[in-house]
Amino acid sequence: xxxxxxxxxxxxxxxxxxxxxxxxxxxxxxxxxxxxxxxxxxxxxxxxxxxxxxxxxxxxxxxxxxxxxxxxxxxxxxxxxxxxxxxxxxxxxxxxxxxxxxxxxxxxxxxxxxxxxxxxxxxxxxxxxxxxxxxxxxxxxxxxxxxxxxxxxxxxxxxxxxxxxxxxxxxxxxxxxxxxxxxxxxxxxxxxxxxxxxxxxxx
Length: 203
What we know:
By secondary structure, the protein is mostly helical. It is built from 11 helices and no strands.
């Protein structure tokens, strides 16, 4: 039963993410989510109680992977390995959670009015960890003296754009949807851009 419950929740979160991404929190109705997910409206309330809880679940479906993505930076001493893994993982999140990524982007762009404070605190702590590790590598002389903050922002922007601005990217590439090879090519390019541009060397 727990597996059935988990599967049903995943389906609801998936379609809720799509509507939240397209319409925003305020304009999205639970009835529309239920219709799109092909489940009875009471089931949505059974699993999530409120629309606010469901919105949080959508945010968590992408913020939790985003928080876990920085593990290589925290755990590895080699900046080439750590940043390569970080960039690859961030792109996989854009590939696997496109609608939830858009929801998160819209939330941030609007000043994060609905973002739970505990998630915001975790994201800030993660950012501070990444900056501290980049500063350590700079001091060790294994990467150029670049701005750790702006390097982090650049990686965020260049990886998340493949989800948040997928329409524009697909339009330029003249295709209906991005495939695995597109994300592999992006990972290779962005990794080399960061490693060569910041003169990063294996520790």
